[in-house]
Amino acid sequence: METRINLPQSELPKAWYNALPDLPTPLAPPLDPATKQPLTPEALEPIFAKALIEQEMSPERWIPIPEPVLDVYRLYRPTPLVRARRLEAAIGSKCRIYYKNESVSPAGSHKPNTSIPQVYYNKREGVKRLSTETGAGQWGTALSFACSQFDMACTVYMVKVSFEQKPYRKVLINTYGGEIFASPSSQTNTGRAMLAKDPNCKGSLGLAISEAVEDAATHADTNYTLGSVLNHVLLHQSIVGLETEQQLKMIGEKPDYLVGCVGGGSNFGGLVLPFLPRKLGGEDITFVAAEPKACPTLTRGAYRYDYGDMARLTPLMKMHTLGHAFMPAPIHAGGLRYHGDAPIVCNLMAEGLVDARAYYQKECFEAAQLFLKTEGFLPAPETGHAIMSAIDVAKTAKPGSCVVFLYSGHGLLDLGSYDAYLRGELTNFELPQSDIDQALCDCPVIES
Ligand SMILES: Cc1ncc(COP(=O)(O)O)c(C=O)c1O
Asked: Is the pLDDT of residue 448 over 70?
């Protein structure tokens, strides 16, 4: 009747898994926004650490984790894999449901798995300050935590709607020593222009990225960091799937379904990618990606080149996109409101290797509450999508299936969202096709 599968610290993975060499079709290259030609590594150097650019394009399957990174990982890793027996009983499931609990990190989510190495490499290259955007606030918290570990300065642009929904994120980020601005802010040209156009603008991840990139590009001592989407972020997150694989092996389990929520694709990618060689080798493992119906990039977005941000400062990436100008509805899963997705996840989606499903926010809060009442922990609203999806899968899967989902973060700083849910103030949003068509009109047309 064991429910917690703990990996000893001596078994902490010592290398990350890079899926690039194993993708069934090569990844479409990122393009320079000015020339529309494949990007050179040098073009990224003004705002990214060289080591991270190398990882972004690395052909190596395994990349050693530096000892100072392992040292900080040991504050919370390996994380437990837990059998959700009470949840199973509550839904009358004939499947075994496990969750990999990433909420035990200091910042409360999977995000430190990449903020720690990103800060480490930047520090090693002499960078003094890091800028970034944050949606739900989890990534900004994770970056400020990692900066505090390596004694670096940190500036966070937080999407205004989330900033207002979650005032304690600011306090936590400030306590770690980071500074934080609601985006659009008056700190950058991009922010000022948006505020002049719409003083009540609630912001979007695409806009906050523009502000953080502009900040890094206009300050010589500052680099930019991204908490999702990019190849090196998914690489760092692979530690989640690698541990999960070992933990399942310890109890003689083999996963039939691996489930994760998708904002930019980093927690989902981190869980599923280490299982890709097994799936391509013929094992019947279904990768299930859960997203909001209000921001349905994988299920309804177009697979084409688009910018990663609203101000068109980032490289063009081939991904499922709702258009870089897309302004998502103010749903409470702030971390799932991004217009695009990780190119690696989109590549697998295009190959038919990902089963993407979209859910309404209210059903995800219901699933999150059921999890709380059965397993006891309060999930982040983003994680509620993974729980909803795991329940959905477990109800329809063949009896005896093994379903593993990624518990990406806790919701202890999302109580305002739960309050709105309990008061019956949440609305379900489903994106009208005309909004998608409209936003896609602004996407560049690239022959590929
Ligand atoms: C708790 C949590 N889960 C999931 C996500 C989605 O991000 P990603 O798709 O990169 O894992 C976020 C993003 O902020 C988050 O905070």
From this structure: no
Residue type, 358: A
Measure the CA–CA gap between 319 and 347, rounded to whole angstroms.
8
Q: How far is CA 10 from CA 13, 71, 78, 245, in A?
A: 9, 12, 9, 16
- Pocket residue to mutate for ligand 1, from 118, 205, 267, most atoms within 8 A of Cβ: 267
Q: Which residues pair with 38 in a beta bridge?
A: 31
Half-sphere exposure of 198 (CA within 13 A, CB side): 11
Q: Give residue-wise pLDDT tens across range 290-332.
A: 999 999 999 999 999 999 988 888 899 999 999 998 888 877 8
- Read off the tokens for 106: 């200091």
Give yes or no for a cis peptide into 184 (omega within 30° of 0).
yes
pTM for the predicted model, two decimal places:
0.97
Q: Which fold has domain 64-108+231-440?
A: Rossmann fold (3.40.50)
Number of Cβ within a 10 Å radius of residue 85: 16
- Cα torsion 182, 429, 366, 296: sign: negative
- Condensed to tens digits (0 to 9), the pLDDT of residues 8-32 reads 999 999 999 999 999 999 999 999 9
The domains of the chain are located at: 64-108+231-440
For residue 289, pLDDT over 80 is answered with yes
Q: Count H helices, E strands: the chain?
A: 19, 15
Q: What is the rounded distance in angstroms from the CA atom of residue 350 to the CA atom of residue 346?
A: 6
CA–CA separation, 140 and 211 (whole Å): 14
Residues 409 and 371 sit within 8 Å (Cβ to Cβ): no
Q: Give the list of residues 6+ apart from residue 431 with CB closer than 8 angstroms, or none.
A: 293, 294, 295, 296, 300, 322, 329
| Minimal-distance CA residue to ligand 1 atom 7 | 263
Residue 286 CA, ligand 1 centroid: distance in Å? 20
How many Å lie between the centroid of ligand 1 and the Cα of residue 37? 31
Residues with CB under 6 A from ligand 1: 109, 135-136, 138-139, 228, 261-268, 335-336, 380, 382-383, 408-409
